[in-house]
């Protein structure tokens, strides 16, 4: 039984979507100052949502799941790099007027506290 045919959206959708994780993996080598404080957490959440979708849809789309798993992992690493950069250079970045870095730390902190708040309810 052939799971994916070349005319299937279960094949071409994930293939086209692999551009996101490939770009995320290439961004891992870039400097922390280049990490977007808004786009990185957004892409991480986007991939987490669509990982669930790819798992729940029948038949399961494992190619799409793998694509979003790689992207969520890479974006998570980027979020960690951003938080690490902020905590290492927070005072210096704020003193020079780099509001992007200070807002990034606020986003990362809020994203880290959100699951804990949901569990405590």
Describe the structure.
By secondary structure, the chain is mostly helical. The chain is 76% helix and 0% strand. It contains 5 helices and no strands. It has helices spanning 9-17, 19-27, 39-56, 62-95, 99-120. The longest helix has 34 residues, at 62-95. The radius of gyration is 17 Å and the shape is elongated. Mediates the uptake of pyruvate into mitochondria. InterPro entries: MPC. One of its GO terms (biological process) is pyruvate import into mitochondria.
Short account of what is shown:
This protein has helices at 9-17, 19-27, 39-56, 62-95, 99-120. It is mainly α and 121 residues long.
Topology:
Blueprint: H1 9-17, H2 19-27, H3 39-56, H4 62-95, H5 99-120
Helix pairs in contact: 1-4, 2-4, 3-4, 4-5
Count the E strands.
0
Largest sheet properties:
none
Q: What general form does the structure show?
A: elongated
**Rg from C-alpha positions?**
17 Å
Query: Regions with pLDDT < 50 over 5+ consecutive residues?
Result: none
Helix-strand makeup class = mainly alpha
Please work out how many helical segments DSSP would assign: 5
| Amino-to-carboxy terminus distance | 46 Å
Mean pLDDT: 79
Order of helices and strands: HHHHH
Helix content: over 70%
Beta-strand proportion: under 5%
